TrEMBL record:
Keywords: Amino-acid biosynthesis, Aminotransferase, Branched-chain amino acid biosynthesis, Pyridoxal phosphate, Transferase. Acts on leucine, isoleucine and valine. Its cofactor is pyridoxal 5'-phosphate. Gene3D superfamilies: 3.30.470.10, D-amino Acid Aminotransferase, subunit A, domain 2. This is Probable branched-chain-amino-acid aminotransferase. GO terms for molecular function: branched-chain-amino-acid transaminase activity. GO terms for biological process: amino acid biosynthetic process; branched-chain amino acid biosynthetic process. Transmembrane segments: none annotated.
Length: 279
């Protein structure tokens, strides 16, 4: 596999990053994960807009223009013959002597990209749905910035797995914030799609935005507001959205079936419309 590191396409075995890189030492970095379907990038513009916002919030310089980043994304798709999968892009504040203070502004940011070939469209879990375990949301309070500090989401997924579930939903004061690496949504008995409103508490998902628009265009009533874990357990349907899962039905929360305990009609329809749109 060819990866991209600071200006060069190299075989993954030859790629190097400094041990002083602040991404490595302080998790001082941000990232984006963009989907490739049939060799095409999905929602590239919105992902780059969010990257620019993450960089801005952390006062981190951008390593390249959006046009250059597009060229690199395409360069990796071509070099690796990627038909379906993900492109991971990470920007860190670069290498500097270890110090909590940010290094001088002219420190070069590090830019790393790699591809992951994966079956996304025909994931078996999309047919069966996934089981969720709730865990307390112990992340920092700026989840709208897509930083590489992913230890807690990683621990949350391990906790969910140890409880026999597939993924975790993070809960704060009884309210669902989001999934460990996706946005959480429920559907009420009258067919209204409920999803947490945007704030610093959740990542502003690109798939979330796309799906909400498709839902509204399809005549689904959408309400952006907080919902409790209790409300989710008693909902007619639940699902998550992300670049890697699109729309993924949730069939169980903390061992309790959601609705009929099978993928709901609205979640299935939204997945179908989303994938049709992506073609
Ligand atoms: N995760 N919320 C969190 C905490 C996330 O990490 C993600 C994405 C999302 C969904 O965002 P989007 O629709 O833009 O992918 C929501 C990526 C896929 C990851 O970390 O692998």
């Amino acid at each position: 596999r060819t990866v991209y590191v600071n200006g060069a396409y190299v075989p993954e075995e030859e790629a190097t990053i400094s041990v002083f890189d602040r991404g490595f030492l302080f998790a001082d970095g941000v990232y984006e994960v963009t989907t490739v379907l049939s060799g095409k990038l999905i929602d590239f513009g919105p992902h780059m807009k969010r990257l620019a916002r993450s960089l801005g919030e952390l006062d981190m310089p951008s390593p390249a223009s959006e046009e250059e980043l597009l060229t690199i994304h395409r360069g990796l798709v071509t070099r690796n013959g990627l038909n379906e999968g993900l492109i991971y892009m990470q920007v860190t504040r670069g290498a500097a002597d270890r110090d909590f203070m940010f290094p001088p502004k002219d420190t070069a940011p590090s830019l790393v990209l790699f591809t992951q070939a994966m079956v996304l469209r025909d994931k078996p879990a999309a047919r069966t749905g996934i089981r969720i375990a709730s865990v307390p949301d112990l992340r920092w309070a700026r989840r709208d910035i897509k930083t590489v500090q992913l230890l807690y989401p990683s621990m949350a997924k391990m906790e969910a797995k140890s409880r026999g579930a597939d993924d975790a939903w993070l809960v704060e004061d009884g309210i669902v914030t989001e999934g460990s690496s996706n946005n959480a949504h429920i559907v009420t008995a009258d067919g209204t799609l409920i999803t947490r409103d945007l704030s610093h508490s959740i990542l502003h998902g690109i798939t979330r935005a796309a799906v909400l628009k498709l839902a509204a265009d399809d005549g689904v009533k959408v309400e952006e507001r907080s919902f409790t874990l209790e409300e989710a357990k008693n909902a007619s349907e639940a699902f998550v959205t992300s670049a890697s899962t699109f729309v993924m039905p949730v069939v169980e929360i903390d061992g309790q079936p959601v609705g009929t305990g099978t993928p709901g009609p609205i979640a299935r329809r939204l997945r179908e419309i989303y994938l049709a749109e992506a073609d």
